[in-house]
Amino acid sequence: MKVRRSERLIDITNYLKARPHELVPLTFFAKKYQSAKSSISEDITIVKHAFLRNNIGLIQTLPGAGGGVLYTPGINQATANNYLLDLQQQLADPQRILPGGYLYLSDMLGNSAVLKKIGRLIATQYAKDNIDVVMTMATKGIPIAQSVASYLNVPFVIVRRESKITEGPTLSVHYASESAHHVEKMELSKRSLLVNSHVLAVDDFMKGGGTIKGMTNLIQEFESDLVGATVLVEAKDDGNPTFDHGATALFNVSGLEEAQPELQVNLGNYLEQVDFSLFETTNY
Amino acid sequence: MKVRRSERLIDITNYLKARPHELVPLTFFAKKYQSAKSSISEDITIVKHAFLRNNIGLIQTLPGAGGGVLYTPGINQATANNYLLDLQQQLADPQRILPGGYLYLSDMLGNSAVLKKIGRLIATQYAKDNIDVVMTMATKGIPIAQSVASYLNVPFVIVRRESKITEGPTLSVHYASESAHHVEKMELSKRSLLVNSHVLAVDDFMKGGGTIKGMTNLIQEFESDLVGATVLVEAKDDGNPTFDHGATALFNVSGLEEAQPELQVNLGNYLEQVDFSLFETTNY
């Protein structure tokens, strides 16, 4: 059955959104809708402009026999600013302060709308990078990894402090936990990461950077490469984000460790690290 | 700026898909696109038919002052069968067998496409129920909970065997782990669940049902109600799914515990528990 343009546009939107970073040949849509390739090309032009104007992401059409349509999720800087302001407001609630200089984040990390914002921010940062897999540390990094991985359309793997029987054989490294002031172990199932993988590390909370350094060592043990590391929140009591370890933080929090804790939530170095030009309508 | 129908259809698709189970007034779209309400009504009719024919879900238009458009994600039975066959094929790999009668599932639970299928299957089952929150047990249940929660548009909460400092005060219960043959503890952050919540419990693997029973007790401690419990895989060596505890299993696996394990993956009781009628095109 031939499908009308209005329905094609809805289905193409749905189809591409479910397959980021995946090249879809125009002939696939032409066959699916029993429509001429020229009509599908026109559809894609409409979808392309709508995606960009509505901050869904970039649609590219690659010509030739191996070509097709490619959807890259991402947001422009104005939208990133809005997301960051919204998240900052939620983070700045003083009731989040927990003993020992920690922050209660479980509500935000169990909220789909929050996770989509974090996922889109981080996926925008790495939109042009070649990433094979997202890595995180159990437990609270998992929702962030899952969200980022869905926008990058790659798998995610979970590093654990203590592996379970359900992981099979593991590789492990020890790392210095600066927040806990001792040496801990982290493990990853051997079959969950192939050698020569390009890995993006994400986590919810960074204090000293020990976990990220541990993941970096673990990635080396798997003969793979760390492409980048981004965390939601870095806790640093002088209020200055740590740039020297190469990680990106969406937010920097301070004032947690004082006798009378006074939560300060500032932007981290995210905006300085990200090139939004792919996703700005002014460029098209 | 007035927005053309073609772009409206793309943006409405994107907007509603991001907000399942949320009533959006027609006037919202009319204002957003500077279009007449009658044009928006026509848009919604087009979106409604396209969503149903393409197995995205149900669009309902509720009339009156408090009315609007409501998107309920869900799939028809034919699509559910396809999803189940695909997942069954992936599960049936004998290399998944681990010592002690366990299954390696981490690859599937770190794959966005797999998680979307599981999420849509479980969200279809509970599409008509009043659910406030999805609950799971750390660690491997988390990706399933996150996927289901995104389709139901509710938060998810994570129960842990051992709570961390980052959880704040917790409530705990003890439960008999039939697979581990001893009594264990599970904890949930006190502030993560309100009293009188309607809770859906999900998990990756069930063996004996101890974890689900434990979550049921924990939900009672929070003065809340268990609406349902669904797991990806139930392991039961006689091959007969356990129906008596009221849980739903997408799959039933057996043959794991023999001296020479021989993995058998069969459908669980999911299809018997689910009413797909909302999502069948034949009904419209």
From TrEMBL, chains A, B:
Keywords: DNA-binding, Transcription, Transcription regulation. Residues 111-238 form the Phosphoribosyltransferase domain. Residues 4-73 form the Bacterial purine repressor N-terminal domain. Homodimer. PANTHER family: HYPOXANTHINE/GUANINE PHOSPHORIBOSYLTRANSFERASE (PTHR43864), PUR OPERON REPRESSOR (PTHR43864:SF2). Belongs to the purine/pyrimidine phosphoribosyltransferase family. PurR subfamily. This is Pur operon repressor.
